[in-house]
Structure formats: C-alpha cells, structure tokens
Amino acid sequence: MTARAITNQTLGAWVIKCNPHKTDLAPMVEAGRAHEHWCVADNYRTRLMAPGQPVLFWVSSHPRRGIWGAGRLTGTPVPGPQWKVSTNITLFDEPILASDIQCVEELSMIEVFRSPQQSNPSWIDATAWAAIRPMLPVIQ
Q1: 84-97 and 54-59 as β-strands: parallel, antiparallel, unpaired?
Q2: Among 126, 107, 110, residue whose Cα is nearest residue 12
Q3: What is the pLDDT of residues 92-129, one digit of tens each?
Q4: What's the order of all strands across the beta sheet hosting 122-125?
Q5: How far is residue 84's CA from residue 63's CA, in Å, rounded to a whole number?
Q6: pTM (2 d.p.)
C-alpha cells in the first residue's frame, strides 16, 4: 500500500477552491464571507477533515486568481450524493495573488499550481502553511 501524502502530521491547511464561472463570487465579496458549505470529494482526504482545522479560500479561473480568504472548518464532512463540509471563511480586502504566492520557493509547487483540476479539498503541507501564514492579513 502506498503511503498517503496527507496525514494529521503533514497537513498545514485545507484549500477550498471556487471557480467563479460556476459559483457567483459577488454575494460572497459583498458579505465579506465565503459560503458556509462547500462540496468535497468522497475520498480519504475528506475523512481527515475536522472542525477547527485551518482552511484557505482559493479562487481559480479569475484574473485575480489566488487566496481570497481564510478561516476554519466548522464541522466534519457530511456524506450524501454530494459530500459537503462546513466552513467559516472571512474574505480579505485584497486577495493574495497566485503570481505573488508562486514567487515564494516553499509555495511554488503547492497542489493548486501542480494539479489545478483537483477536486475539493485541496491542501498545503505544514511547511507551506508556515510560509503562507505571514502573508495572510490580520482579520478583525
């Protein structure tokens, strides 16, 4: 059996991706918050998700592609025809652009760059989380 890349020891933060061609960003930007519930794949990653774990909000397919917010998981994933996980994600006043993130060596190969088509949840490891945390704005 192949060792899993993501474990409770290697996880830095989950990454929830939002494609604005499929999910309207405008109401979230207006509210300053991402939706509370996000679809996730039925896989081993989803089963590792737990309340309190950090989560980044990545907007793809947008001229300002990058991290638009951060927060925490507020529940465990709920199985169903489409699994969902609850979050509490505050949006930043300005996103952290992918071009700026990619310039940081520890972040240049995170999964959203290597495998952008990967379904939710994506993730960053503990090393990448340590590198990205100082880039995140303080949320009041």
Answers
A1: unpaired
A2: 126
A3: 999 999 999 999 999 999 999 998 888 999 999 999 99
A4: 37-39, 84-97, 66-73, 54-59, 11-18, 122-125
A5: 27
A6: 0.94
Cβ-proximal residues to 34 (8 Å cutoff; 6+ apart), any chain: 16, 18, 28, 57, 68, 69, 71, 87, 89, 91
Which pair of structure tokens corresponds to residue 127? 């090393």
Distance, CA of 56 to CA of 138 (rounded, Å): 14
Residue with tokens 């793809």: 60
Average predicted confidence (pLDDT) for the chain: 93
136, 100 Cβ separation under 8 angstroms: no
Paired with 87 in beta bridges are: 73
Which amino acid would we find at residue 113? F
